[in-house]
Amino acid sequence: MKPDFQRDLIPRDDALYLIGALTAVKDKLYNAAQQWELLDENGHVPAAPSYTALLQHAADAQDLSRDVLRLAADFARSPHHTTRAGGTVLKHLATAATISSHSAPHFTETAENALALPRSTNPTDRHYLTNRMVIDHASARAFLRRASDSLRDAAKELDDHLGFQRFLSTLTRREGPPEPPPSRPGGLHR
Prior knowledge:
- The protein is mainly alpha-helical.
- The chain is 74% helix and 0% strand.
């Protein structure tokens, strides 16, 4: 039974390395979602939103999505994805890869609408484009946050797995030969 336990454990160093990688990308996703804003300090869409800045959001979101996808692909190629904890980690990584891939198109739509906004003369069209921009940009940021949450959950699963390993190691240390009973004064045992 002990070899089965060993096969189902992700080596500590591998788990710690992956937790570090997950945390780094998770933080990048979260920070991007917090920092990439469309609205001004009054909560309004600027009269002339920067197409260049919004397109840069899309390019950077694509890079972040690629980082998430690379993490998922690397883990899927590792033998660790076949363990119970590894299967759960891979599920979170797959979710993060899917969700993060949706952010770049929404940022791109935001940029496209920003480009069309100055050419729009009809107030109804301007209102529609402005609303579309707000919705697309907010959706893109939400996808980044949700992908960050999935990576956080993957790292938590690995951390819990390490906690389980620590628990198992304390049990295996206790499973050694039983200690002899304490001797009684005079050397007599009962």
